[in-house]
Amino acid sequence: MTTELKKLPQHIGFIIDGNGRWAKERGWPRNKGHRYGVKNLDVVIKECFFNYHIPVVSVYAFSTENWNRPKTELDFLFKYFTDYLNAKDFVKKYPHVRLNIMGDYTKFPEALVKNAKSVIEATKNETQFVLNLGLNYSGQDELVRAVNTMLAEKLEPKVDRATLQNYLYTKDQPLLDFVVRTSGEQRLSNFMLWQVSYAELYFPKIYWPDFGKEDLYNALLEYQSRDRRFGAIADSGTEA
Ligand code: IPE
Ligand code: IPE
Ligand code: MG
Questions:
Q1: Nearest ligand 1 atom to alpha carbon 77
Q2: Which CATH number fits the domain that encloses residue 179?
Q3: Closest ligand 2 atom, CA of 20?
Q4: Which pairs with CB-CB distance under 8 Å and at least 24 residues apart come from 140-146?
């Protein structure tokens, strides 16, 4: 199935949206959508790393704005994240993957924080793949945090792109090549604002729990068909 894919992103991002609507369509409570959503995350992440060998995968799992949801929904989400981040399972499921959490995850319930810390520790020496997991994440906050750290370190007043990049959660990583947001919403909702600068964007109408292997394959085909120009002109149009 992968034979047609000649050009793959080196860094892919997922804004996993539509869990609630997916459940509602079935007459189920929203939390069931989150349960299936986290299950599906596992399928898609494995496929990215171990079938397509994409070295960097970023996932927007919980935004700083998501705290505005009802407590009962948050409790379910935290439970699913806690289970997902069981260190023993994680290392077994995702060999050679380093977990890098983007966002202040220490604000979550203790069990989740504990699991997250164990996975980070257990995977810290892995270099082949990295999973950036946005938990209590905001792209604007990431930039503010970078600036504040630089100020605190009293760096020279002049900062260039490379310096700023060094203070991001994605230090030493390629920028995003491709971002997939499911559910049909066409916005970034504060996702990786620096890293997204030249990414190709893709907004399939399907809800996240339904976004399966074949949808990922189609997304990657779409990526491959895009003409990335980075401000230059297309190969065929060189005559003035
Ligand atoms: C995405 O699904 C999961 C999170 C934001 C945590 P939603 O919960 O946003 O689902 P919809 O958008 O309400 O359908
Ligand atoms: C974006 O989804 C954040 C995550 C996927 C974690 P939301 O459902 O929270 O975004 P909005 O509110 O529709 O923009
Ligand atoms: Mg949503």
A1: 6
A2: 3.40.1180.10
A3: 8
A4: 140/190, 140/193, 141/64, 141/103, 142/102, 142/168, 142/169, 142/192, 142/193, 142/194, 143/168, 143/193, 143/194
Tell me the C-alpha to C-alpha distance, in Å, between residue 122 and each of 97, 117, 160.
10, 9, 34
**Mind listing the pLDDT tens digit for each residue in 64-121?**
999 999 999 999 999 999 999 999 999 999 999 999 999 999 999 999 999 999 999 9
Which residue range(s) make up the domain with 30? 11-225
Closest CA to 11 of 66, 64, 49, 68: 49
Helix orientation angle between 213-225 and 30-46, rounded to the nearest 10 degrees: 60
Query: Does any domain span residue 234?
Result: no
Residue 233 lies in a domain: no
**CA 234 to ligand 2 center in whole angstroms:** 34
**How many domains, in total, are found in the chain?**
1
Neighbours of ion ligand 3 (CB under 5 A): 17
- Judge whether 192 lies within some domain: yes
Please choose from 36, 41, 183 the residue to mutate so as to test ligand 1's pocket, defined by most ligand atoms within 8 A of CB.
Answer: 183
- List pocket residues of ligand 2, CB cut-off 6 Å: 15-17, 60-63, 66, 185, 187, 189
pLDDT at 190: 98
In a domain, 2, yes or no: no
Global confidence as pTM:
0.96
